[in-house]
């Protein structure tokens, strides 16, 4: 494609993208606010919003009547009918959601499985659920893309899953499989990296330029990094594998796996076993843990908290983040005794590195990975709204079956 960035058309397309991105990130904002954020004049902003509305990407509504100071300005918001299909395959379930460009989630489903899904089976299930939704809850929506959050190493260039060890996937062309099954442009990324981006943009890390995110799921522990406001992916997209590190374990009595890595010791499976569950989603596991007064449960939480604190202290010493965000079962560990975790982390950090540190739990809760997958799916549209025109036939739209 020819580089049009310096042409009048290129400048307009860039400005369309900026306006759409601000509307997406803010969820809704006034035209006057858009004018201030973009530095463009009011008539230019009005024209850009009108074009985005014609493209089916934004809507305008009347200003808030409670704000009577000054000239009222129409409110611009992403069109909630613009949808990405988000999916997170795991060892025990496939979780999916329809995520709107406005952040709404009109549909969500968890499909429990008792066997490891193959990449082909995961793609088939994603397509089946997406087609069902298109004929029902998404009948009037425009489904523009799909995003898949995979617990494994994903090559950024082409969405190839190099290895998802707990799923048993190796060199799996997941992007191609999902695109062929759904007919949708598809983005594939590491689940924790996508979770980090979601929490950075919309959750516990909003407004924070330097953060470390650790995600605890059925497949183990992954992580994501935001440095100076930008995600750090590494050369091929494999950065953030905190679960494969080997933290020091001060007490031999705390060790459960000989020569184990972090995710062998700080483990969702061990927490499930402690409360006597064979499987559960995140809210169910958390509820079972907090409802228990069994000494064994308290002891397992304390053991895992000690080891997690060492891993977090290592990250803080290396990266000096402002915030550490914990998601999944790691959030449950943190919430069981926030003060103890904070104290243990600080005790193992260089004091200066931890001076302004905050440890937070994921605000987006069980939707964080799906919102991250949707964000990846919306990427092309947000970068160039015209190339991603959902009314122009380039993207398969939702239709009633």
UniProtKB/TrEMBL annotation:
<dbReference type="InterPro" id="IPR036388">
    <property type="entry name" value="WH-like_DNA-bd_sf"/>
</dbReference>
<dbReference type="InterPro" id="IPR043129">
    <property type="entry name" value="ATPase_NBD"/>
</dbReference>
<dbReference type="Pfam" id="PF00480">
    <property type="entry name" value="ROK"/>
</dbReference>
<dbReference type="InterPro" id="IPR036390">
    <property type="entry name" value="WH_DNA-bd_sf"/>
</dbReference>
<keyword id="KW-0808">Transferase</keyword>
<dbReference type="InterPro" id="IPR000600">
    <property type="entry name" value="ROK"/>
</dbReference>
<comment type="similarity">
    <text>Belongs to the ROK (NagC/XylR) family.</text>
</comment>
<dbReference type="GO" id="GO:0016301">
    <property type="term" value="F:kinase activity"/>
</dbReference>
<keyword id="KW-0418">Kinase</keyword>
<protein>
    <submittedName>
        <fullName>Putative NBD/HSP70 family sugar kinase</fullName>
    </submittedName>
</protein>
């Amino acid at each position: 494609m020819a580089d049009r960035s310096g042409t009048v058309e290129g400048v307009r397309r860039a400005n369309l993208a900026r306006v759409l991105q601000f509307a997406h990130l803010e969820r809704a904002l006034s035209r006057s606010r858009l004018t201030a954020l973009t530095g463009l004049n009011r008539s230019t902003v009005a024209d850009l919003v009108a074009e985005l509305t014609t493209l089916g990407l934004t809507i305008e509504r009347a200003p808030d009547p409670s704000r009577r100071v000054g000239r009222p300005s129409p409110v611009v918001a992403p069109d909630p009918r613009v949808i990405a299909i988000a999916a997170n395959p795991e060892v025990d379930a496939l979780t999916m959601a329809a995520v709107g460009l406005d952040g709404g989630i009109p549909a969500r489903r968890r499909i429990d499985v008792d066997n490891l899904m193959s990449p082909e089976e995961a793609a088939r299930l994603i397509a089946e659920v997406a087609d069902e939704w298109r004929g029902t809850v998404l009948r009037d929506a425009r489904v523009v893309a799909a995003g898949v959050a995979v617990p494994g190493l994903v090559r950024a260039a082409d969405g190839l899953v190099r290895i998802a060890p707990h799923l048993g996937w190796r060199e799996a062309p997941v992007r191609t499989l999902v695109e062929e099954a759904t007919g949708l442009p598809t983005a594939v990324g590491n689940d924790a990296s996508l979770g980090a981006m979601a929490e950075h943009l919309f959750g516990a890390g909003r407004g924070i330029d330097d953060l470390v995110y650790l995600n605890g799921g059925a497949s183990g522990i992954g992580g994501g990094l935001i440095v100076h406001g930008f995600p750090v992916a590494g050369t091929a997209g494999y950065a953030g594998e905190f679960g494969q590190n080997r933290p020091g374990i001060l007490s031999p009595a705390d060790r459960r796996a000989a020569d184990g890595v972090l995710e062998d010791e700080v483990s969702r499976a061990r927490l499930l076993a402690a409360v006597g569950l064979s499987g559960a989603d995140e809210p169910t596991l958390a509820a079972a843990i907090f409802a228990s007064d069994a000494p064994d449960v308290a002891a397992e939480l304390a053991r895992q908290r000690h080891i997690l604190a060492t891993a977090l202290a290592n990250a803080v010493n290396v990266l000096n983040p402002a915030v550490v965000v914990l998601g999944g079962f790691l959030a449950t560990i943190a919430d069981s005794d926030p003060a103890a975790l904070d104290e243990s982390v600080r005790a193992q950090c260089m004091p200066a590195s931890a001076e302004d540190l905050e440890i937070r739990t994921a605000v987006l809760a069980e939707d964080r990975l799906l919102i991250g997958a949707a964000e990846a799916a919306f990427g092309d549209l947000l970068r160039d709204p015209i190339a991603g025109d959902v009314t122009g036939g380039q993207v398969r739209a939702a239709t009633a079956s």
